[in-house]
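Researcher: Here's a chain I'd like modeled. Treat it as a single chain, no partners, no ligands.
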Amino acid sequence: MSKKITIADLIAQKEQIKKRKAKTITLYVESLDGEITVQEPSKAIATEALIMVHDEAQSEMADHHLVYHCVSEPNLKDASLQQAYGCVEPIDIVSIIFRPGEIAAIGGLALQLAGYQVGVRKVDTELKN
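Model: Modeled as a single isolated chain. Structure tokens:
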């Protein structure tokens, strides 16, 4: 069961909250038969992706945007990697390396790391007899 958070709790946690580091997870990617590291998106990257989702012309690219910016190992922004795969635009590396379902899964998990879609839930306040 959870407890109510007080001002004193927030003040006591101030240093921990201010020094909070970006979360990372390791994912196994079947098509690559290996692991990648995904870091939670910054607020700016997450906001950009969420705006893209609601823009019909860009909605398809929202997950690509997240994957490109959140996969930290291997570094998808590496110029030699992009050159080796003949990328016209840097973000092209995402659709070349990953399968469509993997892109969607990685993008969704990146948002979850930042607290989107998880981490907050409604507390049932109804009395139970």
